[in-house]
UniProtKB/TrEMBL annotation:
Protein's name in the database: Type 1 glutamine amidotransferase
Entry-linked PANTHER family: GLUTAMINE AMIDOTRANSFERASE YLR126C-RELATED
Entry keyword set: Glutamine amidotransferase
Record-linked Pfam families: GATase
Organism for this UniProt entry: Alsobacter ponti
The keyword DNA damage belongs to this UniProt entry's keyword annotation: no
SUPFAM superfamilies: Class I glutamine amidotransferase-like
InterPro entries recorded: ChyE-like, Class_I_gatase-like, GATASE
Length: 287
């Protein structure tokens, strides 16, 4: 029997259509493709809680899944609009269903808010391109989410916001100088979430598409000198995606195999499927 996953799209319609225009897929479609590449027996459904009137699974529907993934988003959790509050309520419902839950970036923030934490803008600014020198905590060194990661590593990332107040039952697993909560396990209302503030699901090509359409913002914030500088960065990301052996580009970016090698980049998602989802499925007698 196939593994059944629900991929929850964090973006409103305009943002996901922009992503599809520049990358060819919406974020949730791309995420589902990654999950299905890691679990050949997987089937993914997609939900759009940011859309008013969207059909969302009821408690029985959530319990029918073997795992749920929450994607990133261009929204800001602290604005409190219905597009956000619907997603927090859905995260609470997933916790209550006890279905294994995984969140990337915005997804981790939704899990933290659902469990009683808080989210706000990072006082030291935006983390763009790559989260550098991610470092495991003592708990993270033995946690299955990070199995196979070295003591420090880099990962694709782009976010301004972060978890600013911890929920009551959380285990910090990794952080870095920019963002103290980079990986965590959150327990709430009988359920468990494994989440990361970075984006292991992003290929360099997808990261290039995201950075590519944010030229004005990133130039204004001082990440690039001008449009030419921004364009060169995006072109190099695309070139390294197409030719992972380009040591010249990898050297300029300061990247190693933890980002360039797709199998290593996807470590946390693979670990979630193998160490959390499959045991959960077996316990429920679905093997």
């Amino acid at each position: 029997m196939a593994l059944r996953f629900l991929v929850v799209e964090g973006n409103a319609r305009d943002a996901r259509e922009q992503h599809a225009h520049t990358f060819g897929m919406t974020p949730s479609q791309s995420y589902a493709a990654v999950v299905e590449s890691l679990a050949r027996d997987a089937v993914c459904d997609i939900a759009f809680p940011a859309d008013e009137g969207a059909n969302l699974p009821d408690p029985a529907g959530l319990e029918s899944y073997d795992g749920v993934f929450l994607t990133g988003s261009a929204l800001h959790a602290y604005h409190g609009q219905p597009e956000v509050t619907r997603q927090i309520e859905l995260a609470r419902a997933v916790f209550r269903s006890r279905t294994p839950l995984f969140g990337s970036c915005w997804g981790l923030q939704m899990g933290a808010l659902a469990a009683g934490g808080d989210v706000g803008p990072n006082p030291v600014g935006r983390e763009v391109g790559f989260a550098r020198r991610l470092t495991r905590t003592d708990n993270g060194a033995s946690h299955p989410l990070l199995a196979g990661r070295p003591a420090a590593w880099d990962a694709p990332a782009i976010h301004l916001d972060l978890v600013t107040a911890l929920p009551g039952d959380i285990t910090l697993l990794a952080g870095n100088a920019m963002t103290p909560v980079q990986a965590a396990e959150i327990r709430f209302d009988g359920g468990v979430m494994w989440g990361v503030q970075y984006h292991p699901e992003f290929s360099l090509d997808e990261l290039a598409a995201i950075i590519g359409r944010r030229a004005g913002m990133l130039i204004g914030e001082g990440f690039f000198r001008d449009e030419a500088d921004h364009g060169d960065f995006v072109a190099d990301l695309k070139a390294l995606h197409a030719e992972p052996g380009r040591r010249d580009i990898a050297w300029r970016f300061g990247l190693d195999e933890q980002v360039i090698d797709e199998a290593l980049r996807l470590t946390e998602i693979r670990n979630f499927i193998d160490a959390k989802v499959r045991p959960y499925r077996s316990e429920r007698g679905r093997a």
